[in-house]
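Readers outside the structure-tokenisation community will struggle with the description of the input data as it stands. For illustration, here is how one protein appears when written out as sequence plus structure tokens:
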Amino acid sequence: MLENLIVESLEELPLLFNKNYIAFIAEKPRSITVDDQEFTLYTAEELSDKITIDGLVVSNVYALKGYVKTIKEFLGPNTMDQKGNQFSMLMLAASKVIGHDNGNLLFLDAHDSKSMYIFHPDGGDLTKTKLKLNTIIKNG
């Protein structure tokens, strides 16, 4: 059975994220700078917006699932970050997207739901950031 890749209601979002994060993005439009890139954080409504990636319809929050479907055919079961550390496609697909910049996606690592990475769709590689979810919420 295919899992649900669409957020049907905004009430689902607190189940996917730290409740403080949902309150944080509800306050006002947000952006954060990571390695000289300015990422726009999705609002709750934008997290649930539907998009199509390689023929798969998903909500923005699940966008990585759409990319993994295709890139694992080329890269195999893993991708890598900027230091050559492997990141499994299963964990990438389970990670939640929170923002975007020029086609690149900012996401929370499914391992701990706090560490933040950038996904580069053009090569399927990742950049691990020094940011943590709690830090951006605290620094508002």
